[in-house]
Amino acid sequence: MSIFYRKSLKNFKAYIPGEQYNEVYVKLNTNENPYSVNIAFDKSVIDSLNKYPEPLSLQLRAKIAKKCGIKRQNVIAGAGSDEILRLIFQAFIDPGDKIAYSVPTYTLYKVLGKMFNAKVIEFKPARDLGINRDIIKSSVKIVFVCTPNSPTGIVTDLDVIKEILEARKERLVIVDEAYAEFCKITAIPLIKRYRNLIVLRTFSKSHSLAGLRLGFGFGDNELIDELLSVKDSYNLNRITQYIGSIAVDMDISENVEKIIRERERVKKSLEEMDLFVYNSGSNFLLLRIKNAKEVYQKLKEKKVL
Ligand code: PMP
Question: Does the beta carbon of 100 sit less than 6 angstroms from any atom of ligand 1?
Answer without folding.
Answer: no
